[in-house]
């Protein structure tokens, strides 16, 4: 049973951040509530004040910036992004990832901003947003600042949000022209044990001009795999579409942890399997097989 709490419904981001500053640790931001309310019902968290940011109109938009980046307000739901024609056309990797988040009920009410702010380590979005080079906008009563996903999520359930800040939006950069991508995950329950995002930019002679690979859900935070990305540069797209043995080493060195989703060793193995499959799928999507 939930303990009594007061709901505040601010009209602006400034008002919401002022409420956060005023009530301090007794308050939490509330959007979809798919993570927060569950934790409160289980007695893991308790707050006297919930600040409902869904009433802030400016945080509910999805639009393109002049330079082509996708601007996603902090209260935009996973379902909205999954079904958006704009996202499907211009940001297919994001749409593919969003379609795999939890279940339809969670996607209908849960928000991308809320997901990131909760920083649950077994979460799909950070892995995808890393290869997109996404940045997050935080607003306080007096200023705004922008952080990368890696800067924002510091660890399990830990972010860089200050006591008087709220996450107002996410800016997602487009992938390079001609890029092919894939998002794959493995889950025995609704939360993934491993999530993998792969981006391949075809170059001359059917080879990789640029590669981006990230792995998430295996440990405290999602991470890019720069050594593997360097090894992929110049690789044959045809070989990736068939079977590229170095991909199986993608899990080596990952900061994986043992938990209910599997052992660290098992997750590292799965990471290699999924990266290999993701590279093969992205290579086929590039039209090389």
Folded structure, characterized:
By secondary structure, the chain is α+β, with helices and mostly antiparallel strands. 33% of the residues lie in helices and 23% in strands. The strands form four sheets. A five-stranded antiparallel β-sheet has the order 4-5-10-6-7. Strands 11-12-13-14 form a four-stranded antiparallel β-sheet. Strand 8 and strand 9 form a beta hairpin. The longest helix is centred in the last third of the chain and has 22 residues, at 264-285.
SS-derived structural category? alpha+beta
Number of helices: 12
Question: Main β-sheet, in a few words?
Answer: 5 strands, antiparallel
Question: Whole-number radius of gyration?
Answer: 19 Å
Strand order of the largest sheet: 4-5-10-6-7
Summarize model confidence as the mean pLDDT.
95
Would you count the extended β strands for me?
14
Q: If classified by CATH, what would the architecture of the largest domain be?
A: 2-Layer Sandwich
CATH fold category name of the largest domain = Uridine Diphospho-n-acetylenolpyruvylglucosamine Reductase, domain 3
Oligomer: single chain
Q: Given the C-alpha coordinates, what overall shape results? A: globular
Low-confidence stretches: none
- What is the top-level CATH class of the largest domain? Alpha Beta
First and last CA, distance: 55 Å
What order do the helices and strands follow?
Answer: EHEHEEEHHHHHHEEHEEEEEEEHHH
Q: Tell me the fraction of residues in β-strands, as a range.
A: 15-25%
């Amino acid at each position: 049973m939930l303990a009594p709490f007061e709901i505040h419904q601010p009209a602006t981001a400034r008002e919401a951040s002022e409420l956060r500053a005023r009530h301090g640790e007794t308050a939490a931001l509330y959007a979809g509530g798919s993570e927060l309310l569950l934790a409160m019902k289980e007695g893991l968290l308790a707050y006297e004040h919930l600040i409902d940011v869904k009433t802030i109109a400016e945080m509910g938009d999805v639009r393109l910036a002049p330079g082509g980046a996708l601007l996603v307000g902090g209260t935009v739901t996973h379902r909205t992004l999954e079904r958006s024609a704009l996202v499907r056309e211009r940001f297919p990797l994001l749409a593919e990832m969003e379609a795999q988040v939890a279940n339809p009920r969670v996607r209908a009410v849960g928000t991308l901003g809320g997901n990131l702010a909760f920083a649950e380590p077994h979460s799909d979005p950070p892995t995808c947003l890393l290869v997109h080079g996404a940045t997050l906008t935080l607003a306080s009563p007096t200023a705004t600042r922008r952080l990368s996903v890696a800067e924002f999520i510091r660890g399990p359930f830990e972010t860089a949000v200050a006591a008087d800040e709220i996450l107002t939006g996410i800016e997602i950069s487009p992938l390079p022209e001609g890029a092919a991508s894939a998002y794959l995950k493995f889950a025995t329950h609704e939360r993934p044990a491993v999530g993998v995002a792969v981006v391949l930019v075809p170059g001359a002679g059917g080879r990789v001009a640029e590669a981006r690979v990230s792995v998430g859900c295996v440990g405290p935070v999602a991470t890019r795999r720069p050594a593997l990305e360097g090894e992929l540069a110049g690789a044959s797209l045809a070989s990736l579409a068939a079977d590229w043995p170095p991909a199986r080493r993608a899990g080596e060195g990952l900061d994986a942890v043992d938990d209910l989703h599997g052992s660290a060793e098992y997750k590292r193995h799965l990471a290699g399997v999924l990266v290999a499959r993701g590279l093969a799928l992205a290579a086929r999507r590039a039209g090389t097989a």
